[in-house]
Amino acid sequence: MLDIEQPVPRIGRAAIDAAGFQFIPECTALCQIESLGLSQTSVTDIVLTHGDHDHAGGLADFPQAKVHVSSEELAEIERGSPRYSAEQFSHSPMWDSYSEADGDWFGLPSRRLELAIDAAVHLIWLPGHTIGHCGVAVETSSTKLLYVGDAYYLREELNDRNHPIGELATIRAEDNVARLESLDRLRKFSNDHSQSVEFFGYHDVTELPAKIPRIESFKGI
After folding, report:
1. What is the pTM of this model?
2. Rounded to an integer, what is the distance from CA 191 to the centroid of its chain?
3. 3-state SS of 73-114?
């Protein structure tokens, strides 16, 4: 909620204008969690794919939660990379970082997280968009999910190597060679495992379930 209350000092006018951020309280993670009947303190762990403004803005709403992230990404945040907003991390998050792959998850390099839940959760190494960018895999006895973060902007990138959105992805990539290698790994993953694993990204609204209200539904509230 702090990003909504103090957008310019926490994000910066240039970033707000460039990304076209909209500040709608009902769309925040905190409000969505409370709408499910849960409390702020119910959130004990957060898995962060990377530190960009639109991914890290809600961390301050859960100061008691442990934040799990790759060691490479944490190093970039802590060194003060100009890509990130120091204000979004000024509440001193409780970091828990992971530095080395301990196996693979359906052919993707993975780092298993230490969580006290009845599910296996892994950081999936998909660098390029940022230095330490990771996806998040969750596996239970009945479900297998992979959230790829910003490893692609649109799912169609997996089918079209020359998709126009690639121009924007290239501009935003810290390491475009690594980004393209991550995309190739996801293409192979999609070809081999799309029938057994559900996967989705952060930016492609066509991947959202139909029951999820679109942001337009909240305008004017």
Report:
1. 0.93
2. 23
3. HHHHHHCCCCCCCHHHHCCCCEEEEECCCCEEECCEEEEECC
* Rounded Cα–Cα distance for residues 58 and 213 (Å): 19
> Are 3 and 88 in contact, with CB atoms under 8 Å apart?
yes
Cα 168 to Cα 213: distance, rounded to the nearest angstrom = 26
The C-alpha atoms of residue 82 and residue 99 are separated, in whole angstroms, by: 22
Q: What whole-number distance in Å separates Cα of residue 101 and Cα of residue 78?
A: 21
Tens-place pLDDT, residues 108-147: 999 999 898 999 999 999 999 999 999 999 999 999 999 9
- Sign of the Cα torsion 166, 172, 177, 181 reads negative
Number of Cα atoms under 13 Å in the Cβ half of residue 152: 27
Kindly calculate the radius of gyration of the chain based on its CA atoms and give it in whole angstroms. 17
Provide the CA 165 distance to its chain's centre, in angstroms.
18
- The pLDDT of residue 217 is above 80: no
CA angle 16, 38, 85 (to 5 degrees): 25
Query: What integer is the mean pLDDT of 19-41?
Result: 90
Eight-state DSSP code of residue 204: -
Q: Please state, in angstroms and rounded to a whole number, the distance separating the CA atoms of residues 134 and 52.
A: 12
